[in-house]
Design goal:
- The chain is α/β, with parallel strands linked by helices.
- The chain has one domain: Thiolase/Chalcone synthase (Peroxisomal Thiolase, Chain A, domain 1), CATH 3.40.47.10.
- It contains 11 helices and 15 strands.
- The strands form 2 sheets. Strands 1, 2, 5, 6, 7, 9, 10, 11, 12, 13, 14 and 15 form a 12-stranded mixed beta sheet that branches. Strands 3-4-8 form a 3-stranded mixed beta sheet.
- The radius of gyration is 20 Å and the shape is globular.
- The mean pLDDT is 97.
Length: 391
């Protein structure tokens, strides 16, 4: 079965819309990464914040209005025309929606609790549904006037990579004729303080695969795709999933689950590792993740495959990371990337001698093979890899 990624909408700290995000990616623009000093411990970190003004939800969707859904709406607006065309072609009940998130609208609940403590009552505009984990897919369905199957996946940092596997199954079994898939996550104090409690936050810009890495940066954003059997320039080649259940927050040091997911994606794509022209690394800049992923990359691809982490430009968007980073791969393969450039790995250049010498992309490198892979590894051992290529 051939599936295609017909279009994409994206909003992230690195930019808004396909053209701006591609330009920011290739320029290594980290302007969306900014200091944050609001942690309960008094420590500070750096976060990736979307700088775009976000419009409130329509009045009919006020019960679901929150920053998370405003980010989602912004990405959906960018692909409104192809979605409307699909709705006219197939019917509103034949388009599925599968979205990944981890924070949902928790920040709306945080603001409501702060108001309760300050004023003795919740704001009239607050509704629990604003932060309920399934809100994203329900909001998208109502926003787009679609009535088909819709659900939200929340498996931490693999959430919006796994949506592509769901889309594959739904389209393959005839449950839908097209699918709107992707991820969205917004910054919130719960997540920031949670990662701080794990001592996983970097005090400055994250530094993936460096000997000097000190942890990750949290980010936000939304990236949404139209997936169908209608031929397009870019193809969804394969998706691999695994669950190794090694530890609630630490990756399996051996990387067996991560490797299984990558190899499954390649198998579904019918591609050998040497056919892959670029890998977008999970690359969180935490010591254990980078150590595990470096070993897996060397085992699967050797040390010559071009790869880089883009989290020092976007922050780790958690439940939206899988879709966002696949979106970056989509942009790199698109005709708009005329010179076929790859994004340079943004770090201090100090290689960790304990890690395999994988081929971290340098300035002005170009891709030569037109299948890319994006890695996503989550708490609890939930792993996913997605392969995308030129049709």
């Amino acid at each position: 079965m051939n599936l295609y990624l017909n279009d994409m909408g994206v909003i992230a700290p690195i930019g808004v819309g396909k053209a701006n995000v591609l330009a920011g990616l290739l320029a290594g623009d980290g302007a969306g990464m900014e200091p944050y000093a609001g942690l309960l411990t008094g420590r500070s970190t750096v976060i990736g914040r979307v700088r775009e003004e976000l419009a409130a939800a329509p009045a009919a969707l006020a019960d679901l209005d929150c920053r998370n859904n405003r980010l989602l709406a912004h990405a959906l607006d960018q692909i409104a025309a192809p979605i409307a065309q699909l709705r006219d072609t197939f019917g509103a009940d034949r388009i599925a929606i599968v979205l990944g998130t981890s924070t949902s609208g928790i920040s709306a609940g945080e603001d409501a609790l702060a108001a309760l403590a300050r004023e003795g009552r919740m704001p009239e505009t607050y509704h629990y549904r604003q932060q309920e984990i399934g809100t994203a897919a329900e909001f998208a369905a109502r926003y787009l006037k679609l009535t088909g199957l819709r659900y939200t996946i929340s498996t931490a940092c693999s959430s919006s990579a796994k949506v592509f596997a769901s889309a594959w199954r739904l389209l393959n079994t005839g449950r839908c004729d097209a699918a709107i898939v992707g991820g969205v996550d917004s910054l919130c104090k719960l997540t920031l303080n949670g990662f701080d409690a794990l001592e996983s936050l970097a005090p400055d810009r994250c530094n993936p695969f460096s000997a000097n890495r000190r942890g990750l940066n949290i980010g936000e954003g939304a990236c949404i795709f139209v997936v169908s059997k209608i031929p397009a320039a870019l193809r969804l080649c394969g998706v691999g999933e695994s669950s190794d259940g090694y530890h609630i927050s630490a990756p399996d040091p051996s990387g067996r689950g991560a490797e299984a997911a990558i190899r499954a994606a390649l198998a579904q794509a019918g591609a050998q590792p040497e056919a892959v022209g670029y890998v977008n690394l999970h690359g969180t800049a935490t010591p254990k993740n980078d150590e595990m992923e470096g070993q897996v990359m060397a085992r699967v691809f050797g040390v010559d495959a071009p790869c880089s982490s883009t989290k020092s430009l976007t922050g780790h968007a958690l439940g939206a990371a899988g879709a966002l980073e696949l979106g970056l791969c989509w942009l790199l393969l698109d005709d708009a990337n005329v010179r076929r450039r790859l994004p340079a790995h943004a770090w201090d250049g100090a290689r960790d001698p304990q890690l395999p010498p994988i081929n971290l992309v340098r300035d002005d490198a170009r891709w030569e093979r037109d299948i890319f892979v994006s890695n996503s590894f989550a708490f609890g051992g939930s792993n996913a890899a997605v392969a995308v290529g030129r049709a």
